[in-house]
Amino acid sequence: MTCKETLKMLNTYGWSDALQRDFTPFADVGLVPARVTVQQRGSYRLVTETGEFEGRISGRLAHEASLFSGSGGGHPVTGDWVAAELKGGAAIIAHILRRTTAFTRMAAGTAKDRQVVAANVDTALLAASLNADLNMRRLERYLATAYDSGAAPVILLTKADLCDDPGPLVEAVQAIAVGVPVLPVSAATGQGLDALAALLAPGKTAVLLGSSGVGKSTLVNALAGADLMATGEIREGDAHGRHTTSHRQLILLPSGALILDTPGMRELALWEAEAGVAAAFADISTEIEQLAEDCRFRDCAHGREPGCAVQAALADGTLDVDRWGSFQKLQRELAHAVRKEDPLASVAERKRWAAIHKAGRARMKAKREWGD
Ligand code: GDP
Ligand code: ZN
After folding, report:
1. Do residues 200 and 255 make contact, with C-beta atoms less than 8 angstroms apart?
2. DSSP code per residue over 6-27
3. Closest atom of ligand 1 to CA, residue 187
């Protein structure tokens, strides 16, 4: 491989003049620039000017990472640009270069520590299906997550082929996302794919954020012109086959654009979606719960049980039928999302519901106490 070709390799992955300037002090001490294409429990895959390497972090960086997490520190993640030392066919990551953008989530078990999930993402593709009912609050959560990261959002309304008239929905979504491109797309018919491809520039990195089943993998495959990702059809019944070790997390499309897809980003999407649903759910569930206090049976399922206060409230109009319907739907939706992403979670589901109910009650209590 000639020098020119190899330099082209880093440019392919988005190397820029600004990065080159940031890198100068590291070049002076003999380190090479690299981008993290796969991150897996302490091991990394890096692309450099001279090819791909397996990598790990230096002892010093590990120490620093434990001191400073947050959006500027922590461990390298997929998408990061790093300064590495090449040693006998392997790479040792010595520094993380300044991130232009970072997706973060709350670190497990802490209230304020944020953990970086993906770095240097230029475009956040927020996917929602035109097939199922569009959940505006969920989209708002995804938008907030995208803005938080610094990446520019684009809203993809997927499975347009299953919707006779997407127009009103596109308008409704556009109303909550002023200035954000809103594209109806269909991997099935190819609708909107050219417009989407035009938004993805060579050397720029995009992520897909959206609930399980909205068609993210199918879209990536359509853009790649190859089956890079296992889609829902294959994935069903194979809960463990989703992220194999060989799976590239930074996918180079034929157009030259990059798609970042990591387990961490998928978890973030689920987590954000859940938070949105939970917020909507907390309001309604509190209302139902208060009604349920008057049910004859403590374990009333609010179906055909005698003396059900919920059914009584529905009959006399105190409880709105639509509101009751959306409560039931949210309950199913959240339970389904949780089960689909993580089969083990169904065991923890009851606990989760208990926590959401508790949060809802606390909110109502606070409202009452503050006279709001
Ligand atoms: P992901 O979980 O977001 O990655 O979703 P998948 O890409 O696995 O797709 C979930 C299901 O939706 C699969 O059965 C796909 O075949 C189907 N699907 C994906 N895109 C489209 C589309 O544009 N139109 C239709 N009708 N179905 C689609
Ligand atoms: Zn009842």
Report:
1. yes
2. HHHHHHHTT--HHHHHHHHHHH
3. 23
Ligand nearest to the CA of 163: 1
Q: Is 159 in the pocket of ligand 1 (CB under 6 A)?
A: yes
**Average pLDDT along the chain, 372 residues, taken 10 residues at a time:** 60 94 95 95 90 93 77 82 94 95 72 78 95 80 88 96 92 90 96 95 94 89 77 43 56 93 80 62 76 91 92 92 78 60 48 54 53 42
Quick check: pTM over 0.90? no
Does the Cβ of 362 fall within 6 Å of ligand 1? Answer: no
Q: How many residues does the chain have?
A: 372
Best CATH choice for the domain 102-261 from the list 3.20.20.190, 3.40.50.300, 3.30.428.10, 3.30.300.30: 3.40.50.300
Tell me which architecture the domain covering 3-96 has in CATH: Beta Barrel (2.40)
Element housing 197 (H / E): helix 193-199
- Nearest ligand to the CA of 319 is 2
Tell me which of 156, 159, 218, 227 to substitute to probe ligand 1's pocket, judged by most ligand atoms within 8 Å of the beta carbon. 218
CATH of domain 281-371: 1.10.40.50
